[in-house]
Fold this protein.
Amino acid sequence: MSQTAVQAPGGDVSVPFLERAEHGHFIDGQIVLTSAGRTFDARNPSNGDLLARVAQGDEADIDRAVAAARAAFEGPWSEWTPYQRQALLYRLHDAIDRNWEELARIEALDMGQPISRTRMGKAASLRMILFFAAQAANIAGETLQNGMPGDVTTMTLKAPVGVIGGIIPWNGPLGSQWWILGAVLATGCTAVLKPAEEASLSVLRVAELLHETGVPAGVINVVAGPGRVVGSHLAAHPDVDRIAFTGSTETGRKIIEASKGTIKKLQLELGGKSPDIIFADADLDKAVPGATMGVFANSGQICFAGTRVFVQRPIVEEFCKRVAEFVQTLKIGDSLDEEAVLGPLISQKQLDQVMDYIKVGREEGARLVTGGERIGGDLSDGFFVAPTVFADVRNDMRIAQEEIFGPVMSIIPFDTVEEAIALGNDIEYGLGGAVWSRDISTALKVVKGIHTGTMWVNCYGLIDPLVGFGGTKLSGYGAKGGKAHLDTYLYTKCVYING
Ligand code: NAD
């Protein structure tokens, strides 16, 4: 077996892309290797094995990629008609569709999400591409009345903002990169993407596929490497017009700081600690799996995970019991195990962080219902933590207030709808949230009362680009999806014509 072939419970799986000795950046339509030795290791979080060596970028690589993106923005790409960009997006839709199995395997191996889940991500990514293809042909300004004397005609035009710096987290880059790629290609912008070191491979592979499918050289570039070097240089770069960032609130603050010199436009999708509110009249057959997967999907490494589960007091014990039973049905395993529903955490660092919080939860006096330990046995070389449920949590405990980004649910009791809303809002984040109730007026009261960018009723985590998704408070600003999304890749030009 070669170094990069993977031994999985279902047999050896070969992924040709991973057979390369080194993965370069993707700049100006070419794979760009760095000088010898400047690489970092991509490891498989299921077992710690070396998966690939990836070029470790520096400031010069960013400069080169930004120059390529600028040249492309000002070159023939700027002459493409909306229909040409739309047709390109349709071709990309088909190319991504055809190549999804390879991409799903790369993502599973690089970030640890089980293959059954990375396969399921295909529908969402394809929907996003279709959404942006439709948007490409729907960019419009307005003709406006004016109060000026004489024969003056006034209107607005929409124009692409220019070079976009896209900074991407590790918790699902295969899908999440499309929020940037789609908008860039629909509007005629260009981009330099900076994936997270922990999971760069699917972004690098997609860039190649885009180029093979007809995206002109320089339109989409990718530079891998550490955030504090390449990410911060991109955020401060004088020739980058806008930053689209998804990541932690802490890094978001650094991006604001780095971008202030050049007054960049920013989109910041940041951390979360979302409330999931279960009323006693909820259909528990739906609420138990819904709220449980709202926390444990992707092993809790989801920004909008509903980790603060507020349960109305009469059903707290029944809810705890049923969640503990449901958790036992979730198979945890190697990311290439076809049966696995939950995989490992991304890294040793993430594992340590999650285990620290579990210790904190115990010390704070929360009651451990299930989980609480690292998984050993066959999975002891990977970063696996058992889905962990704490009950008797108070909203002021650290496990209820701080983003753990791992498989830890905090169950907090409440009595009235007003109390649930007050507790739900008593947090610095405002990303997602949900309410489970058979009473629509109760549900709507919560939807209106909770200060978050997205709310779900009797479901969790549904996202459609036509509708969108966004945050408020410390969870950032700038919608993903909907008409507002594309608008932030365009600027408005007011035109006065003196006839
Ligand atoms: P992170 O902030 O550490 O890293 C995100 C990206 O920023 C990475 O590419 C990283 O290399 C880069 N980066 C790090 N330091 C930088 C700097 N100084 N300047 C520029 N770039 C820098 O976050 P993470 O650990 O990769 O992801 C987890 C976080 O992301 C969680 O807080 C999660 O809630 C959040 N997240 C939010 C959303 C959302 O849509 N709101 C989606 C996914 C993840």
Q: What stands out?
A: Residues 167-171, 194-197, 227-228, 231-232, 235, 246-248, 251, 254-255, 269-272, 303, 403, 405, 431, 471, 475 surround nicotinamide-adenine-dinucleotide (CB under 6 Å). The longest strand covers residues 152-160. The longest helix spans residues 115-136.
